[in-house]
């Protein structure tokens, strides 16, 4: 989940990048605003289209329309994490919470879309980092990590690690390292 104050620019660009870059990886994505209901900024649509990613059909959704427990990773694109208190604090308690604190392009753009382009490129790099992290077989993106130790790591630990990674296994969100 990419969160932002209004879900009109930064979170929409990050959402678009994740959809474009995830390839065949099984990574779901949504974006929302603490306060939803504004339109996606034309500048964001334009610079993403220039990069080959179409977000023109994206809508500005409200965080209230989603449940935090449906997400393993929550990213505050604008520093809005400080506003997630009380009932909203559950969003910060997911397996992974990050605060990217990207600049707000409409607030600083001199009129040539340069701020939009910079934030677009920054969000692309951060999304690629996120995907790289999520593809690791163990790490902070898992709720639990298990290490199988053995003197030579040639037989028993390898067999033990193979069980939980079997596609028929129903052991979600556990990373293994041999």
UniProtKB/TrEMBL annotation:
Listed Pfam families: LMWPc (PF01451)
Domain of life of the native organism: Eukaryota
InterPro entries in the cross-refs: Ptyr_pPase, Ptyr_pPase_sf
Signal peptide: none
Domain Phosphotyrosine protein phosphatase I: 1-133
Keywords: Arsenical resistance
GO biological process, one term: response to arsenic-containing substance
SMART domains cross-referenced by the UniProt entry: LMWPc
UniProt protein name: ArsC protein
